[in-house]
Amino acid sequence: MSLFAKTTRAAAVILTLASLPSYALAQQVTVVPPGNRSAEQPEIPRASAIRTRASYTTYDEKFRKTVDLLNSEPALLGKIKKAAAAYGIDPVHIVGEHTFNVSAVDRLQTYYIKAISYAELDIKFSYDGVSLKTFLQRPEFRSCETLAITSEQWSCRDTVWDESFRGKVVDGVSYEAISFQRAFFQPFYAGQTFGLGQISPLTALQVTDLVNRTSGLPKLSADRPKDIYRDVMDPDRSIIYIAAILRDSIDAYREKGFDISGNPGITATLYNVGQPRRRAERLRTAVDAGAKKLLPVENYYGWLINERLDVLKNILDGKAIDQRTTSDIGGKKQ
């Protein structure tokens, strides 16, 4: 094991132990092994396949574009490794998040230009004319305010929305059967995510405490949407947020007795689907109810990451990869 890998692993242990509650330290931790649990790639959701086809690309083409980006931006790899070390994770987790998030025009300079354009917009987070700030003052969200960190607070609010408002009529108001993210955090268009890591505003808010504590960036607030878009669109800052999001998912599962730090496919899955705390809680409940051998399972996105792990590790080791060889690694095309 290289000195860098040993240092990263040691930092991961220290960060994890420092962030865990006492009950998590006392229970046995199940290490999730590397690789895919599924022999074949899980089904790709229809919406994702449609978006990919609409952009006249395939997942293999996105992968080749990522290889091209990383080969042509050597400074980017250095920033990825630096962020990974700061958050105590293997840098391959971060490289994995770039793998299928790059479009034909994505270059670092492009994101700087996009960040400036978003900073000039009048952005508001609201639903049906009601601002997010006003909505969160409802009594249903009161219990969320007592939680200590932003990841727990926003996870709580997400859960309250699903349980108390989603698809229901409350006080004479009919709420659509859509996610909290879609209801309040998409002022431009559906499915919007931004930057190299395709980060949603809600996800950035969830890890702002961690980013502030670890990297010293100012805390974000839903009352200041422009600050959120600035951070997730800025290439240098977005890498920090990617690392924090991955660290937060690893910690969420560790708190429930599962170590997913050695499986980039699982962290990629959680990055793709979100709600790591809710999913970790469901897994813990199922295991405690008798499903002793149950482990986290990758989705189509995480499966692709694990299938291409050797290529991604070679990129991190500074071995330039010929893009022509990267389309021969199997997997569904759409």
UniProtKB/TrEMBL annotation:
Q: Which stretch is the leader sequence? A: 1-26
List the Pfam families: DUF1402
Q: Which InterPro entries match?
A: DUF1402
Q: Which UniProt keywords apply?
A: Signal
Give the protein's recorded name: DUF1402 family protein
